[in-house]
Design brief:
Shape: rod-shaped
């Protein structure tokens, strides 16, 4: 009779758990072998990244750091490190010392219509390295061009006698004009000196 029949379950094979463990063990072995095979390459790459990221900033410099193109800080003098792998970080060094440049002779007509030739020397210093990089392109050229324009404007507004007798005062006025703009670039114009004033031959 069907009621008296016993349903006999199928017992799992005792070897199934062992086979699963063996597969896991083999996978672990293969994984470790892969890691050991790649380890020398990873070590070489790591050493290359570390050495390649070392930078030396001189006492008179500051390093402006850009991370993925965004400003992320400054580095002071000494040995420092940046993560330059794939260009993730880069450092732009800025010289913080006082620098000079000559303003070549400018042909200017004074207020009383006398043509004169004037040259000068400009002394300037970077006070904020980040501003000098982020706010202006090629700040030495920008300061030079702006100083030339200011010199022509100021000289063109004074008479020859004033130019000859108040040279220092005129230099100070030029400096103030240039300083008002270069302050936004992180640059201080420490001094402007008018050197030579060339008068017309008939004077």
């Amino acid at each position: 009779k069907s009621r008296d029949r016993k349903i006999v379950g199928v017992r799992p094979s005792p070897s199934a758990p062992n086979s699963l463990l063996q597969v896991k063990f083999l996978c672990y072995i293969y994984f470790m072998e892969l890691i050991l095979a790649l380890l020398p390459i990873l070590v070489i790459v790591g050493i290359g990244i570390i050495i390649g990221g070392l930078r030396v900033v001189n006492q008179y410099e500051r390093g402006v750091i850009l991370s993925l193109g965004k400003y992320s800080g400054q580095r002071g003098p000494g040995l420092t490190w940046i993560f330059n792998f794939l260009g993730i970080q880069r450092m732009i060094k800025v010289d913080m010392r006082i620098a000079t440049f000559d303003i070549p002779q400018q042909e200017v007509i004074t207020k009383d219509n006398v043509p004169v030739g004037i040259n000068a020397v400009v002394y300037f210093q970077v006070l904020d390295a980040a501003k000098s990089i982020l706010n202006i392109q090629n700040y030495p050229l920008a300061v030079s061009q702006y100083a030339q324009a200011a010199l022509r404007d100021v000289i063109g507004g004074v008479e020859l006698d004033t130019l000859l007798s108040e040279r220092d005062q005129i230099s100070l006025e030029i400096k103030k004009i240039v300083d008002a703009t270069t302050a936004n670039w992180g640059i201080d114009v420490t001094d402007i000196k008018i050197q030579d004033i060339e008068l017309p031959a008939d004077m």
